[in-house]
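Lab meeting minutes (informal)
Scribe: AK
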Amino acid sequence: MITVDTSNAVYGNGAYDGVIGTKLEPKSWLVRPYFLSAVRDRIENVLVIGVAGGSWTQILVNHPQVKKVTAIELSHGYLDLIRSRPEVASLLTNPKLELVIDDGRRWLRQHPDAKFDAVVMNTTHHWREFASALLSREFLTEVRAHLTPDGIAFWNCTESPRAARTGMEVFPHTMMVMNHCLASNAPLEPNRDRWKKILADYRIDGQPVIAADQIEATLDFLTQEALPEPGHMSRWCRREAMQAAWGDARIITDDNLGHEYR
């Protein structure tokens, strides 16, 4: 069952599943899908696992550099929702999009040679049933195998230290961006000038994603380097801070089922 409340928040089977909207503003949670260009010069081929209301996929398919987005969604019902909302309706006719109704993990196994510059997952709450299938060491190892040499994986830990610690177990380079773990086989270092250039060129349905006079304030997110914490999530931090805070957390595996079991 899919519902949308008056604030444009989407709920799947009663659990929060994102907000319909693509406009970027300073201190917005939407900093996250726009952040990829802060750490990479080139992002052309993207995999999205979990489309839901379509906002993040709409943002990524309109990235100025992106040539193709492969999006995997388990529920047909979300397509009807996307068609009905003007903020995201054009997503389904965008020639850069390949949308597949399937289980993301199964799709990865069935396409072992597919490689991506970015794999993005705005993952559901870590405590929900089956969440460990998208947070486990085994799943993230599968994701890592589908990245280009400097490709990045980006997934929502939803404030779970175990989810973040699991990412550190699989990837040699990690950082936190709000509640998302950003990970790669290659070093990660934000660059303000690169990010500014991409944001200035960004358009969705012909309209700028951010007002020109708000770009600098949005870029100031990069000055907020500290461990994200409940109540203070508009931050990012490097691997060293993650290690100090969560280095002793138990990793999530397919066998221990993470937060689903305990």
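Next up, CB showed the second protein from the same session:
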Amino acid sequence: MALVELKDVGKVYGKRWVALADITFSVDEGEFVFLVGPSGAGKTTLLKLLLAQEKPDSGQIRVAGFDLTKIKKEQIPLLRRKIGAIFQDFKLLPDMTAWENVAFALRVCGYPRKLIKSRTDELLALVGLLHKAKSYPNELSGGEQQRVAIARALVHSPVLLLADEPTGNLDPHSTDEIIQLLLDINRQGTAVIMATHDMEIVERFGFRVLELADGYLVGDRKTNIGGGNLS
């Protein structure tokens, strides 16, 4: 069943910059998809559209049952509880510990204190960082910061995880750890759309690849190499 559907989607900034044009594709529940293309190809713009951070200028977008071309402002928080998002620069709050960064995402939604504690502990354990719960972001490595960001993105058990260049600032070892974590999350049923320019990562797995160039979707294929070997 399609979790994400785009039909003839276009996005233009100003009068001349066509960020996206005629984008049509769908992503099924539980699918893992790589979104590739050079800088400026439209990857980040596409992810912003899926998060309802931007609205398309043309076409139709449906995500997790929401029509994003008609979505009302008060519906956007409901949409984002179904979507987790992680970024290249982690976006952690620097004056909060790892535990507080994850708990904050629950606190702002009004969850009771007992549930916040149990869920935050559970997620930090899932990403292997419960022992770093009291550490601040500047006391964590890049890979550890990204794992905290992943834990935060999972607080509402999203059906879709968007990852915008999540390994772009990481060393090879940390990159492998983050990819493995994303694979584990996907195996548990969460669909993943990962934007990356690192084709070495993409070619390790037999997953679907959507390729953007100059705002157009120029490829929709599966890689030939499968098995997900991280060694």
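CB comment: The first strand starts at residue 2 and ends at 13.
No objections, moving on.
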